[in-house]
Amino acid sequence: MGVTDEVTPLIVARADHPVSRGGLSSSAVKVLYRLHRSGYTSFLVGGAVRDLLVGERPKDFDIATNARPQEIRRLFKNSRIIGRRFRLVHVIFRSEVVEVATFRASPEPPEGPDDWDEAEAEAAEADAEPDRSPVPARVDHAVYGTPAEDAQRRDFTINGLFYNIADYSVIDYVGGLADLEARLIRTIGDPVQRFREDPVRMLRALEYSARLSFTIERRTREAIVECCDEITEASPARLSYELFEALRSGNSAAIYSAWRGAGLFDSAFPGIAGVVAEDTRMLTEVDRAVASGDRLVDSTLVGAFFLYPFYREFAELTADGRRLDNVEMLRRITTMLEPAATGLRLSNHTFHLLSQGLFTLTKMNRAPERGRQVLKLARQEYFGVALELFGLAGRAGLVSAEAAQGWSTAVARLKKPAEARAAEDEPSPPRAKRRRRPRRRRR
Ligand code: ATP
Ligand code: MG
After folding, report:
1. Which of the residues are catalytic?
2. 215-216 and 42-45 as β-strands: parallel, antiparallel, unpaired?
3. 204 touches 156 (CB < 8 A)
């Protein structure tokens, strides 16, 4: 590791690059400055620097510093230490969380959500002040490192750039500026080694390529072919995290095609690949929804994959005007979803919302006839998921225009205040009635 200390970075002065403080959130600027004024090195890092350099608005702002987690924690009242192996500090503002990490030398992949343990985070927070927490020696002496080392352990050159708040320069230890210019995704260091170390990076390479319309540099591309099978070694929680990131990105159709094309999708997500044919139409609808500002919940995001298979099962069970067998339908939905739910480590809650949300679609295939039916459904927590899925299915042409129209009118009416509704035709159900029902059942 010592060798990297000698590396001289390329430093680009403020006048020669487009990153300005105005592109940062005010919270990120506050955190950068407070660290700097307290005598620490303070850099904006990772995706935010990359996005600002290509003229995009960053999703979030990550900061790296030579201050240790306990020191960072002391500087910000509104902060908490999280993570197990590498402690990070979240500085919490009203509208965003700024993540501050101490420079690291470790080549290990960053902590995935699987390593984040809320109980442990609480414990870390509790003993954060005064500084009594037993920081393992390994953490202090081997994990933390210099800025040069911190740049080297990152995944791709375009993700390894720093923006220095002290003089507003961009610091490049890894050739990231040249690759941004050439629109190339290239691993830092030997790609085969970097992908073996952390196979999730292969998914990330394709994801960035799809998102930014960048080319994957030749050796990096060849290494994906070579290391493709190792994706099965990745932790399920981290794979799941990357999938949801892709689904939320607004480019999920392109990312899915790239993953599938590289042979990664089927190995990484067999529970989905086993059910879903090669079809990006639903994901295109997800991307449209995201682009129009919808924030779809996880159950809906993953549910989108299953809309076509779901409607196929439904059509089969109701062919020739047969009445739907609810028990059979629910059984089929559960069977269809279970491998994916297990593979993706979906929580019971997410799974419940998803399966019930899909099942509810069987009740929405025709416009609602009674307001009561809508009110009854609307009381269920999974109705939100059903509505989101119904919206996607409608736009993909999977439900009739009358049904889509009927439900959208009914739901719009629901949102009106109760008095306005009562003044129209159907009254909202009287309270007493709602209470009586369970009592009767108990007898
Ligand atoms: P996004 O816009 O999707 O947030 P990002 O580049 O900020 O993109 P993050 O997942 O937020 O991606 O990670 C932040 C930074 O941490 C990356 O830019 C990269 O420098 C580093 N990083 C993330 N994942 C890895 C990994 N698997 N291996 C090495 N470095 C990583
Ligand atoms: Mg990020």
Report:
1. 60, 62, 155
2. unpaired
3. yes
pTM: 0.86
Angle (CA) 343 345 346, round 5°: 115
* Residue 323: half-sphere exposure toward Cβ, Cα within 13 Å: 2
Res. 12: pLDDT tops 90: yes
Residue 372 is predicted with a pLDDT of: 86
Instruction: Provide the token pair at 435.
Output: 């209470």
* CATH architecture for the domain at 183-268: Orthogonal Bundle (1.10)
Banded model confidence at residue 130, pLDDT cuts 50, 70, 90: very low
Please tell me whether residue 172 adopts helix, strand or coil conformation: strand
In angstroms, the CA 310 to CA 282 distance is 12
Tell how far the Cα of 208 is from the centroid of ligand 2, in angstroms: 12
Whole-angstrom distance, CA of residue 210 vs CA of residue 321: 44
* Overall fold of domain 1-182: Beta Polymerase; domain 2 (3.30.460)
Q: Pick from 53, 108, 155, 290 the residue to mutate for probing ligand 1's pocket: most ligand atoms within 8 Å of its CB.
A: 155
Give mean pLDDT, residues 241-253. Answer: 96
